[in-house]
């Protein structure tokens, strides 16, 4: 039983796949708990150096499963508990020193925006569409949308999405900075695998720490960030990978000066 999310880990790469295509990968209650558990499993696995976040079916994620909320007799307290479980997973991924790339196709709606922005690098297919729709059903932003969306595109543009029934196409999302790249639908999977491979074949730990520093930095003082940066680069300098890369860089620079 997958509870709507598939997980595979192989050769340092974790692939987390939303798998409720008939519901546009909207998160119901079991899927919310599965997301939280997958986040903890992936981030606690020392073999994992990079993560791909993708989805099966025509859409990436339609956010929370409003139909399930309406038809199961859920209470406000249960909705809050479910949101908290998803938030636990988002926070766990966002604060981990692991670079994450998302492959996004079709609709991304409501909380799906927050789940998408859990990734550090977002690649969208040319058919991707992005919309809020919270207020359409009388609900408020969750799944990190009130924080991650303005961090990505700025407060004014975030409010345009949240306060108007506006849908962005892939080209507009790229212009706004909501996604990093737009590719042909047929090329989406190959492109995110290429990005993840680049991380795994390079200074994997350094990429991961860069994502952690940027994510945490938004909520801390400059002094705290500077202290963390200093400690992190010092720790990185002592690793065998960094020692080898620094030595190679120094040797190449010295050779260039002599020639």
TrEMBL record:
Xref: InterPro entries: ClpP/crotonase-like_dom_sf (IPR029045), Enoyl-CoA_hyd/isom_CS (IPR018376), Enoyl-CoA_hydra/iso (IPR001753)
GO molecular function: catalytic activity
Origin superkingdom: Bacteria
Pfam families: ECH_1
Xref: PANTHER family: EG:BACN32G11.4 PROTEIN, ENOYL-COA HYDRATASE
Similarity comment text for this entry: Belongs to the enoyl-CoA hydratase/isomerase family.
Name of the molecule in the record: Enoyl-CoA hydratase
